[in-house]
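=== RUN LOG ===
request id: a7f3
mode: sequence -> structure
chains: 1
length: 126
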Amino acid sequence: MKTQGEIESAISGGMSRFEQEYMGRGPKDVHAHLIDDLVVVRLKSVLTAAEQHLVKTLDAGKGRDLLKQVRSHLIEIARTTMEAMVQEITGVKVVSLHHDISTVTGEEVVLFILAESPLFREIKKR
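=== RESULT ===
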């Protein structure tokens, strides 16, 4: 049985590989947090140079809206892959996935809601 930290680390690694393979660029930093039946993944600096340029050059938020639409669509296409990865690591079925990205900070947040809190081994404190 894995510890909470091992589960979080495995999910962070899986999400980083996902970004690299599906988006063409991995995040500069990624952290997963297991909170009861939630897995919150925060990815920093995920925007490609082309995406950053798109956001800056189109008028009145059009670039931002377009980028968010494209990213949301890509997440929906790969939803089953991400859910399977989280289920394999936690041993618990994923009930839903939520996603958002900031075009200002370049951060992305992915929230997985699990059917129940996963079991993990407690670390013995000295």
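=== NOTES ===
Residues 22 and 74 are 8 Å apart (CA to CA).
The radius of gyration is 16 Å.
=== END ===
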